[in-house]
Amino acid sequence: TRPIRIAPSILSADFSRLGEEVAAIDAAGADYIHVDVMDGHFVPNISFGPLVMASVRKITSKPFDVHLMIAPVDLYIPAFARAGADIITVHVEAGPHLHRTIQAIKAEGKKAGVAINPATPVSALENVIGDIDLLLIMSVNPGFGGQSFIPESLNKLRQARALIGDRAIDLEVDGGITPDNARAVAEAGANVFVAGSSVYGGNDAATYAPRIAAIRTA
Ligand code: DX5
Ligand code: ZN
User: Fold this and answer.
1) Catalytic residue (one of 36, 65, 133, 170)
2) Which residues have CB under 8 Å from 73's CB, separation 6+?
3) Number of independent structural domains in the chain
4) Which residue, 10, 39, 132, 204, is the most exposed by fewest CB within 10 angstroms?
5) Three-class SS state of 110
6) Taking a C-beta distance cutoff of 8 angstroms, is the pair 57, 26 a contact?
7) What are the CA-CA distances from residue 78 to residues 115, 128, 166, 168 (Å)?
């Protein structure tokens, strides 16, 4: 199985101190920096784009795990690649030409991820599984931090793990992850854990290391 990675989401950071908040999770043991990009169209919320991302890129050398909740998406892939993305994840629901989108990410020399919403079956990825580096199961409806984990996601993680088989693909889970459910999620097959409010809640940097450790050791 693949190594466990904790990916705190900067969506729950204090944006007025974004650079410090990124430095703090780096120091606290984050493996990836999860960057949630929302367009007010694919999801009912707006976060930030490549300019903001580029300015925090210089704060840390940790990989940027960029989750694009935008449609259309192809047009913006080069900008996120230039802004310092290491993994670019797009939604299967965001457009009719997922295969082309994956190729566009690879053409930028970046790792390609594909995310599916709670109502989308894992089978939607059967025909691209050989082309991707990361599969992301959304365990909440995307758009906001701080929502509750949808229990059916555990079944989907097991199905995704079976689909991945022995391929070198990370299985990421995003939404409502806490120390209380991280063990069940890991047993269902996930190895990359996004955590927004359970790391950044309260925005007190002194708590980030124990909060990341609590998810990792769960
Ligand atoms: C939801 C985002 C998530 C979110 C996770 O649209 O993709 O990454 O920030 O936040 P929590 O961990 O609070 O559910
Ligand atoms: Zn996300």
Assistant:
1) 36
2) 90, 91, 94, 95, 101
3) 1
4) 204
5) coil
6) no
7) 19, 21, 30, 25
Residue 175 Cβ contacting ligand 1 at under 6 Å: yes
Distance of CA 217 to the CA centre of its chain: 20
What is the CB-side half-sphere exposure of residue 182 using CA atoms within 13 A? 23
Q: What is the CATH number of the domain that holds 123?
A: 3.20.20.70
Catalytic residue among 31, 65, 170, 174: 174
CB atoms closer than 10 angstroms to residue 40: 12
Q: Is 83 in the pocket of ligand 1 (CB under 6 A)?
A: no
CB 8 near ligand 1, within 6 Å:
no
> Domain containing 30: what range?
5-217
Residue 36 annotated to the active site: yes
Determine the Cα–Cα distance for residues 15 and 155; give it in Å rounded to an integer: 35
Q: Is 133 a catalytic residue?
A: no
19-69 confidence digits (pLDDT tens): 999 999 999 999 999 999 999 999 999 999 999 999 999 999 999 999 999
ipTM, interface predicted TM-score of the complex: 0.98
pLDDT tens sequence across 134-177: 999 999 999 999 999 999 999 999 999 999 999 999 999 999 99
- The CA distance from 153 to 71, in Å, is 24
